[in-house]
Design brief:
The protein is an alpha+beta fold. The chain has helices at 15-28, 68-77, 117-122, 127-134, 138-142, 171-178, and strands at residues 5-10, 47-48, 56-59, 80-87, 91-98, 101-107. Strands 2-3-1-4-5-6 form a six-stranded antiparallel β-sheet, with helices on both faces.
Length: 185
C-alpha cells in the first residue's frame, strides 16, 4: 500500500488566519479540534506552516482527502487555494479554488476508481484557467496536467524538476511553478 496525503496552500501571508479558518471549519462541521503545542505531529493532527512568500501551507489529518475543507477556508478568507491529494501512492489530484469556488480540477488517473470518459474530461485540468488565476505562464503549467498512463516512466515536465510525471510527488514541482512551497522539513 502506498502513501496518502492531503495538503492545501492558501494565498494568505498570515498562518494565524489560516489556522483560525480551519478551526471555524471544524466547528461548523461538528468536528472536535483543539490546539496542541508545536512538536512532532501525529496522523490526526492538522499542521499549519509559516508562510513562504504569499502562501501558507496546511497538511490535513490522515483521513482528509477531499478538497471541501480547502474550499470552505478559501471562502472564509476570500483567497486563492491549491489543494492536492495523493491516493495510495498511485495518483495525485489538484483543485484550484478562489473565494470558495472551484476554478479547476485535475487528476493524474481519472479512471482509477471507475472507467468513465466524462471523468477524464472533468479532471483534465485547464492550463489557461490556472495561468490566468495564478498569474503564471500557461506553458509552465500545461506540462503537468497529463494523465499518468500517457507518460514514459522517466519523463519529467522540465529538466530541473525533482520528480517524474508518473510519480504523484510531481505536485511538488508543480507547486514550485505556481507559487506554494512544499515544506520539506
Amino acid at each position: 500500500m502506498g502513501g496518502f496525503l492531503a495538503v492545501s496552500a492558501f494565498r494568505v501571508p498570515h498562518a494565524i488566519e489560516v489556522l483560525a479558518s480551519a478551526e471555524r471549519y471544524f466547528a461548523e462541521t461538528g468536528c472536535h479540534a483543539e490546539r496542541i503545542e508545536a512538536g512532532a505531529p501525529g496522523n490526526e493532527d492538522l499542521q499549519v506552516y509559516p508562510p513562504a512568500g504569499d502562501w501558507t501551507v496546511m497538511f490535513w489529518p490522515n483521513w482528509f482527502g477531499s478538497a471541501a475543507p480547502a474550499r470552505s477556508i478559501s471562502g472564509y478568507l476570500g483567497c486563492l487555494a491549491s489543494h492536492v491529494s495523493i491516493y495510495d501512492g498511485d495518483m495525485w489530484s489538484h483543485t484550484l479554488v478562489r473565494n470558495g469556488v472551484v476554478l479547476d480540477r485535475f487528476c493524474s488517473m481519472p479512471g482509477y476508481f471507475e472507467e468513465d470518459p466524462e471523468l477524464a474530461e472533468v479532471y483534465a485540468g485547464q492550463p489557461d484557467v490556472l495561468a490566468t488565476a495564478l498569474g503564471r505562464p500557461r506553458e509552465q503549467l500545461a506540462h503537468y496536467l497529463v494523465p499518468a498512463e500517457s507518460v514514459r516512466p522517466d519523463q519529467k515536465a522540465f529538466p530541473d524538476d525533482r520528480f517524474e510525471l508518473a510519480d504523484p510527488w510531481v505536485f511538488v514541482d508543480f507547486w514550485r511553478r505556481i507559487g506554494p512551497r512544499y515544506p520539506d522539513d
